[in-house]
Design a protein that fits this description.
The complex is a heterodimer of chains A (113) and B (114). Chain A has 113 residues and is mainly β. Chain A is built from no helices and eleven strands. Chain B has no helices and eleven strands. In chain B, strands 2, 4, 5, 6, 9, 10 and 11 form a seven-stranded mixed β-sheet that branches. Chain B is globular and about 40 Å long. The termini of chain B are far apart. Classes of the chains: A mainly beta (113), B mainly beta (114). The interface between A and B is medium-sized, with 24 and 27 residues.
C-alpha cells in the first residue's frame, strides 16, 4: 500500500525566507501528485498538480518538483509571507488511475513577521 | 469557481443517533468522495462514488454508509454514531479520474459525538 510521508511535521521561518517542504512516497507508480494548502478548521485548497510525466509545476511563488523514480516531491515557496502560514499536504494518485488519493499528514508552516 | 458545499459545519450528536452529512457540488463532477481527517492520521477515504447510485468503499467504511441519488449530491450517513466517529469530515469532487484533474474539497464538517 502506498505510504506518503511529510517531514518535518512543523516548520517555523522568518518572513522573507525561501523554504522547501518535502514529500516522499513508497510506490513510484503514481498517476499524479498534488499539493494542497489547509488553513485551520478549513478544507483543502489545491495548489499544484504534477502529472507523472512532468518534472515540475509553478504557480506564482510556488514551485513543485517531482522525482518519481526516487519517490520524492518538493514544494518550494519563495519569499515567504505570514499569509503563507498553513498546513501543506501532498497526495498521490496511484498509477492504476484508481480514485483514491493517498495523503501525507502534512507540514504545518508558520511564517513569523 | 468550483464549489463544494457541506451544509453543516459544526454538529454535536449523541451516541446512537443517526447522522446525515450532506455535500453538494456545482461543477457536474462524476466523482465524489468522503474523507475523515484526524490528527496524526491525515485524511482517510471513507467512501467514494463515480456515478449516480454507484459507490465504492474506501479505506475505513465501517460504521458509515453513503447515498448518491443525484449527481450533484453525496451524503454520508452514520447509522448509529459513536464517540470514535468524532472527527472532521471532508467532502470532495473531481472529474473522471484518468483525466488527471484537480480534486476540490468542501470546507469540512466538524462532528462531535458525545
Amino acid at each position: 500500500k502506498q505510504e506518503v510521508t511529510q517531514i518535518p511535521a512543523a516548520l517555523s521561518v522568518p518572513e522573507g525566507e525561501n523554504l522547501v517542504l518535502n514529500c516522499s512516497f513508497t510506490d513510484s507508480a503514481i498517476y499524479n501528485l498534488q499539493w494542497f494548502r489547509q488553513d485551520p478548521g478549513k478544507g483543502l485548497t489545491s495548489l499544484l498538480l504534477i502529472q507523472s510525466s512532468q518534472r515540475e509545476q509553478t504557480s506564482g511563488r510556488l514551485n513543485a518538483s517531482l522525482d518519481k523514480s526516487s519517490g520524492r516531491s518538493t514544494l518550494y515557496i519563495a519569499a515567504s509571507q505570514p499569509g503563507d502560514s498553513a498546513t501543506y499536504l501532498c497526495a498521490v494518485r496511484p498509477g492504476t488511475g484508481a480514485n483514491n488519493l493517498f495523503f501525507g499528514t502534512g507540514t504545518r508552516l508558520t511564517v513569523i513577521p | 469557481d468550483v464549489k463544494v458545499t457541506q451544509s453543516s459545519r459544526y454538529l454535536v450528536k449523541r451516541t446512537g443517533e443517526k447522522v446525515f452529512l450532506e455535500c453538494v457540488q456545482d461543477m457536474d463532477h462524476e466523482n465524489m468522495f468522503w474523507y475523515r481527517q484526524d490528527p496524526g492520521l491525515g485524511l482517510r477515504l471513507i467512501y467514494f462514488s463515480y456515478d449516480v447510485k454507484m459507490k465504492e468503499k474506501g479505506d475505513i467504511p465501517e460504521g458509515y454508509s453513503v447515498s448518491r441519488e443525484k449527481k450533484e449530491r453525496f451524503s454520508l450517513i452514520l447509522e448509529s454514531a459513536s464517540t470514535n466517529q468524532t472527527s472532521m469530515y471532508l467532502c470532495a469532487s473531481s472529474f473522471t479520474p484518468n483525466s488527471g484533474n484537480t480534486i476540490y474539497f468542501g470546507e469540512g464538517s466538524w462532528l462531535t459525538v458525545v
